[in-house]
TrEMBL record:
Pfam families assigned: Ribosomal_L7Ae
Lineage: Eukaryota, Metazoa, Chordata, Craniata, Vertebrata
Protein name (database record): Growth arrest and DNA damage-inducible protein GADD45 beta-like
Gene: GADD45B
GO cellular component, one term: nucleus
InterPro entries hit by this protein: GADD45, Ribosomal_eL30-like_sf, Ribosomal_eL8/eL30/eS12/Gad45
Record-stated family: Belongs to the GADD45 family.
Biological process according to GO: regulation of cell cycle
Organism this protein belongs to: Mastacembelus armatus (zig-zag eel)
Superkingdom field: Eukaryota
Residues covered by the Ribosomal protein eL8/eL30/eS12/Gadd45 domain: 17-91
Database matches in PANTHER family: GROWTH ARREST AND DNA DAMAGE-INDUCIBLE PROTEIN GADD45, GROWTH ARREST AND DNA DAMAGE-INDUCIBLE PROTEIN GADD45 BETA
Length: 148
């Protein structure tokens, strides 16, 4: 039994909390978007990263799986909370809408997003969800973001 099945009623609120967290973090310039950009930040300053969001709708992409494996390993070693999400289109809606003034090319790779804030209530809700998932042996918690 997966955590998301057991606590199904929590998933929608956690999804909303994650969305709010990402939008707020982006407004505060506390978001790093993209696999390569994230890897650079993790190499230089892993102590300030509080959440790693790995997003993919296509589980068939071998290169993406390799990147995710390496990022997950690094995050586990650095005690960074990891959350896998499906709903890349929803992430695009959220993050491009918030940051319409920036270059749209920046938002093409939404597969990895790092959050570097620590004082947000929504971060605590997402973190609690991830901790509970790990307690139930789901080492990389998963969440589905719904398009609107």
């Amino acid at each position: 039994l997966r955590f998301s099945e057991f606590y199904g009623c929590l998933s929608p609120s956690v999804g909303l909390a994650l969305e709010e967290l990402l939008v707020t973090a982006q407004k505060q310039d506390c978001l790093t978007i993209g696999i390569y950009e994230s890897a650079k930040l993790l190499n230089v300053d892993p102590d300030n990263v509080v959440l790693c969001v790995l997003a993919a709708d296509d589980e068939e992409d071998v290169a993406l799986k390799i990147h995710f494996t390496l990022l997950q390993s690094f995050c586990c070693d650095s005690d960074i909370t990891i959350l896998r999400v499906s709903g890349v289109q929803r992430l695009k809606q959220l993050l491009v809408a918030v940051d319409a003034n920036r270059n749209q090319e920046e938002h093409r790779d939404l597969h990895c997003i790092l959050v570097t804030v620590s004082e947000m209530e929504t971060l605590q809700e997402v973190g609690t969800y991830c901790q509970e998932s790990r307690r139930l042996d789901q080492w990389v918690p998963e969440l589905v973001l719904q398009e609107r």
